Fold this sequence. Notes:
Blueprint: H1 2-6, H2 10-54, H3 57-62, H4 71-90, H5 105-124, H6 128-160, H7 165-224
Amino acid sequence: MLDLIFSAGPVVKLVLLILLYFSLVSWAIIFYKVAVIQRAIKESDRFLDFFWTKKRFDLIGQGIKEFSHSPIAILFREGYHEMLQLKKKSADPAESGDFSLKMETTEMVGRALRRATTQETQRLEKYLTFLATTGSTAPFIGLFGTVWGIMDAFHGIGTTGSASLAVVAPGISEALIATAIGLAAAIPAVMGYNHFLNKVNILIGEMDNFSQELLNIVGRMEQGN
């Protein structure tokens, strides 16, 4: 295999280097996303248990630092921070005419939760586009290397005037390596992309559900006041 790679033409070697880059970066992203998403899922589960056990926003806010990698905990932090800011402004006579205070607390907290959801979604989906790009382009890059290698092989046949298997086989085998490497780079990338996208969608659904639950609680608190 190494002999075929080193004996390949310069264009095929360039294609193989590009595919090697795509493959190494894809594997690095896969290992990174495994750690990030698994940690986000575990800490989110722990935070939900903590949230429904404590039930008081002040106690939950005090322990929020233990769940810094949970997107759901970050949603609560942003929503609770918005509530504290509104409460502080309402208690300040100098800011009693502020337009934001004329809006419902639920609406303001909802906006903060939507902003946080967008930011966390972008964080969780970070680098997934590279996996998608690798999965869609690597086979074609490898195919380009194969076509170019076959063209070189036929050019060699025309130059030597011999079409024997001994002359054709080395050139064809060198060319096919590019397709094989392209598939080797694309398959893990596609599998990783689909797996992580599914996990991210699950987390997004959990964030949406938590946001609705939190807004319902805030709405009941507002009505109680």
